[in-house]
Amino acid sequence: HSRKGTGVFTATCHGRAAHAAKVPNDGRNAVLALAGFLLEIVKIPAALPEVMVNVGNIRGGTAATNVVPHFALAEIDVRITRLADRAPLLARLREQADRISAREGYRLELTGGFNRPPKECLPAEEVAFSEWQRAAADVGVAPFTWVHGAGASDGNFLTAGGLPNLDGLGPLGDALHSDREICRVETIAPRAQIVALFLHRVAKGEIKLPARPARV
């Protein structure tokens, strides 16, 4: 796998409470302002195609419906394919936040950040994957397919630290992240054989991985 980097941001909008019927114009509706911000940021992938933006949840207002809400909050999941996309994405998020804050009576705060860097496929991983395919063939396992995963893993941290790694190569299963999730037991031993053979060849010096610099 190559994998996307992940981040979580919280957008908190402050407005001004007022009676929704008697003096509605005195209020500043934080729910509507935040909604406008969210509708703009979900357009970011149109300009940055390798970026994903998902509004995970939103809440705001009070228990009373006759109040112009002064507060609203949303949590946003973002994902990037390349480290180079991090700065442009942040710039666009902040630009939209600043537009809300520039309106009289509103303030939109953006907090949070990235928790995993992207795991990009570079020469070291390409060599490792080629050798993994050779080991798989030698134990009679069908060839693997290189895929790009939108989900992150601990491999993201290893790659950022300059350590070539492959992941997503364990036993087969189905219904991931559900109460129906299973592991196909018959695939455990063949996958373990591949690991053993691959590591044996690394230990004997038969596999040479190109060095790569650490990234942050």
Q: Which geometry do the CA atoms define? A: elongated
- CATH overall fold name of the largest domain: Alpha-Beta Plaits
- Topology order in helix (H) and strand (E) letters: EEEHHEEEHEHEHEEH
N-end to C-end Cα span: 19 Å
Proportion of residues in β-strands:
15-25%
Mean of pLDDT: 92
The radius of gyration computed from the alpha-carbon positions, rounded to a whole number of angstroms, is: 24 Å
Spatial order of strands in the largest sheet = 4-6-2-7
Percentage of residues in helical conformation: 25-40%
Count of beta strands: 10
Which residues form runs of ≥5 with pLDDT under 50? none
What class do helices, strands and sheet pairing give? alpha+beta
Number of domains: 2
Give me the number of helical elements.
Answer: 6
CATH class division of the largest domain = Alpha Beta
CATH architecture of the largest domain: 2-Layer Sandwich
Structural commentary:
By secondary structure, the chain is of the alpha+beta class. The chain folds into two domains: 2-116, Alpha-Beta Plaits (2-Layer Sandwich); 123-203. Helices cover 32% and strands 24% of the residues. The chain contains six helices and ten strands. The chain has helices spanning 30-41, 44-47, 86-101, 123-138, 155-160, 188-203; strands at 2-3, 5-14, 18-19, 51-60, 67-68, 71-80, 107-116, 148-149, 173-174, 182-183. The strands form four sheets. A four-stranded antiparallel beta sheet has the order 4-6-2-7. It has a two-stranded parallel ribbon with strand order 1-8. A two-stranded antiparallel sheet has the order 3-5. Strand 9 (173-174) and strand 10 (182-183) form a beta hairpin. Helix 4 (123-138) packs across helix 6. The protein is elongated and about 80 Å long.
